Amino acid sequence: MDLKDLVKQWFDKWEKGDFLNLPISENFKHTSPFGIIEGKKAYTNLIEENKDKFLGYEFEIHDVIYESNKACVRYTAKQGQEFSLDVSEWYYAKDNLIEQIIAYYHVGEIRDERKIQNYNN
C-alpha cells in the first residue's frame, strides 16, 4: 500500500468512527499539543475513554505533501456545527502502517502576555 492510500485510509476510518482498525503499528506514537501517547493500545484506550472528543468528525483536506515514507496534511476537522479545528500533521510510515504522527494545532486562548498588539487593526 502506498502512503497516499494509507493516509486516505486513516481519514476514512476516523470519519466512520472505526478507530479500532486505524492503520497504525503496535509501536504507534502520537505527539500533539496535549502530549505524547505511545503504543497502539494506549492510543485506542484514550479514544475509547473520550469518544465524545474524538469521534464524529468530518475532514476538509486543504494540502497534502507526500514523500516515500512521510506525508504532511493540512486540514480542518469539523465536529457538528459548533466545533472546528485547523490542523497540520506529519505522518511517518513503516511496513505499510503509520508509525508516528506529529500534530500541530492551537488548543486554547492566547495568554494576554503572548498577544500581539494592534495585530488586526
UniProtKB/TrEMBL annotation:
Origin: domain of life: Bacteria
Limits of the SnoaL-like domain: 7-98
SUPFAM superfamilies: NTF2-like
Gene3D superfamilies associated with the record: 3.10.450.50
Annotated protein name in UniProt: SnoaL-like domain-containing protein
Source organism of the structure: Algibacter luteus
